[in-house]
Automatic annotation (TrEMBL):
The organism's place on the tree of life at top rank: Eukaryota
Polar residues: compositionally biased ranges: 501-517
Lineage of the organism: Eukaryota, Fungi, Dikarya, Basidiomycota, Agaricomycotina
Organism: Rickenella mellea
Protein name from the UniProt record: Uncharacterized protein
InterPro entries: OTT_1508_deam-like (IPR027796)
Region Disordered, residue ranges: 496-533
Length: 533
């Protein structure tokens, strides 16, 4: 075993080629790089990005501003604009990385995973991060899941995911179940039933106009119809069957807390995936009005189910051609010189008004003085976590996608901060990025001339967002959040008007190209070849 100094003064013990990083008790000055040439690359000064201590004043102000934005239900309606454009290969790559991140996510609240492909030393590797350091058990599970991707046994990866991280799939199914059955036991309109009624009046032209070629090619195998018979009758039959099957499947699965030991789960999930695939790719669903909020939410949830089930086939296909990327799994926390940030807890003000006053947020004329005459303020006041001191104390965390970019920044920029080729890291994530992560990526790219990105952002503020270590980007993000808070307060507490941040509420994240799902036909045949649900 040898002991070497890393870039931020941490001593890394090397045993069997694996780095074990010993965390310092206090921040230490950076030391020059004199070793690690065997890694085949030059490391950027990691402590420039992931620092042991963050400026507590800026962290407090960022957290408070995000808490205020969240309190007034604000989100960035233009969050997808000005994001780096990806080429076709990068779109495929980021979709695959999203699927892998979903596989490794346990489904436990707060567990978020980010992934990217990068050359660590001379090896192409899958680099993984969580919103917190992974436990030994999570490391073992990740290895088992990625090893399962190499198996030639049909559905072995899906059965492995069900066993170890199946809760994440169940969470998606429960969201879909809620979408379908909401209102049945309440005195409100069930919008899924309205969709079914619209289907009764819908007359498809024919199979080729209703579904993409990959699905049409399966119809003779699934329904036993003759090749070339593409009548609209078959298309409508498939749609009506899909509506029936999806209700049966989510009613059964959506009530489970965990997957039981029933071996039939794989068959049931494959059938559900096929059903979702039919609906997502149908002209009937695609031509619904964009203004139909329920329809947009329903499609998003269908896509997320297909990504978590049928999307696994994409991992198997990819890794059958490039198995080296499975064997070299690298956690961000194990990178040489990595130091976890020790964030201080942030205590929010006792009231929403006090928080606005401390932050010196300019108020509209209507909101000056007594706020009781503002109808909307009552809700904002009661939502603020002022009743409990514990609720007002927030522990920031470094979000995993930012952690990945900050930790691998040396791969896309040189020692002078200029971009180098490749200048892009595409990063997959088990959830869409929050407002702050999206802003940080934008400012980091602007500062260094790079084009790194995740697949998309829901644009919502998340108060427990920890500042990364790039001071320049941090400052710009802080300024942007303050601008958004000022504008949001003017609109929200001012005279009633159409808000500038209007957007259809998302269930948890909006879908993007990477979240498209549903275009594979691999599990579609199982919709009519038996299987319970």
């Amino acid at each position: 075993m040898s002991v070497i100094p890393t870039l931020n003064g941490v001593f890394a013990k090397i045993k069997g080629g694996v780095f074990h990083v010993k965390q310092p008790t206090r921040p230490q000055e950076s030391k020059p790089l004199s070793v690690l040439h065997d890694l085949g690359r030059t490391l950027s000064k990691h402590s420039d990005y992931i620092m042991a201590n963050q400026p507590s004043a800026m962290q407090h102000d960022v957290t408070a501003a995000l808490a205020m934005l969240k309190n007034i239900n604000w989100h960035d309606g233009e969050v997808q604009k000005h994001r780096p454009e990806l080429n076709d290969a990068q779109i495929v790559e980021i979709r695959l990385l999203d699927i892998i991140a979903n596989c490794l996510c346990t489904g436990v609240p707060g567990d978020v995973v980010a992934t990217t492909f990068a050359n660590i030393g001379t090896k192409p590797s899958l680099v993984v991060a969580k919103n917190r350091p992974p436990t030994p058990n999570e490391r073992e599970i990740a290895n088992k899941i990625l090893e399962a991707a190499l198996s030639k046994e049909k559905d072995f990866l899906l059965s492995t995911v069900i066993k170890y991280t199946g809760r994440n799939i169940l969470n998606r199914i429960k969201k879909l179940r809620e979408c379908i059955f909401k209102g049945e036991t309440e005195n409100v309109l069930n919008k899924f039933k309205v969709l079914e009624e619209d289907l009764e009046d819908y007359e498809p032209l024919d199979l080729t106009n209703e579904f993409p070629p990959g699905l049409v090619a399966e119809f003779p195998n699934v329904y036993g119809i003759k090749k070339g018979d593409i009548s609209g009758t078959h298309a409508k039959t498939a749609l009506k069957d899909a509506f029936i099957d999806i209700q049966k499947a989510v009613k059964k699965l959506g009530l489970q807390k965990e997957f039981d030991s029933n071996a039939n789960n794989v068959e049931v999930l494959n059938k559900l995936d096929g059903t979702c695939t039919i609906l997502v790719n149908s002209t009937f669903m695609k031509t619904r009005p964009d203004s139909d909020e329920f329809n947009q939410r329903f499609i998003r949830r269908l896509k997320k189910v297909t990504r978590n089930i049928g999307g696994l086939n994409e991992i198997t296909r990819r890794y059958s051609k490039q198995p080296d990327r499975v064997h070299n799994l690298v956690w961000v926390n194990d990178l040489p010189g990595y130091v976890d940030i020790n964030y201080p807890s942030v205590k929010l003000a006792n009231t929403f008004q006090e928080a606005l006053s401390i932050a010196k947020v300019p108020l509209p004329e209507l909101a000056k003085g007594n706020w009781d005459h503002i109808p909307r303020f009552k809700g904002f006041r009661t939502k603020w976590p002022g009743a409990s001191a514990n609720a007002r104390e927030i522990e920031p965390k470094l979000h995993c996608e930012v952690n990945v970019l900050a930790s691998l920044a040396h791969l896309i920029k040189d020692e002078h901060g200029n971009p180098k080729k490749p200048d892009t890291l595409v990063i997959g994530c088990s959830k869409q990025s929050c407002l702050s992560c999206n802003l940080w990526f934008k400012e980091f790219n602007s500062k260094h001339g790079t084009k790194s990105t995740t697949s998309g952002s829901h644009g919502k503020p998340f108060p427990a967002w920890g500042l990364p270590g790039d001071d320049g980007a941090n400052k710009l993000v802080f300024e942007e959040i303050n601008k958004k808070l000022t504008a949001a307060v003017q609109v929200t507490l001012g005279p009633p008007m159409a808000t500038a941040h209007n957007r259809s509420p998302s269930d948890d994240q909006a879908s993007t190209d990477s979240d498209s799902g549903g275009t594979h036909a691999g599990n579609w045949g199982s919709t009519r070849r038996g299987g319970s649900g």
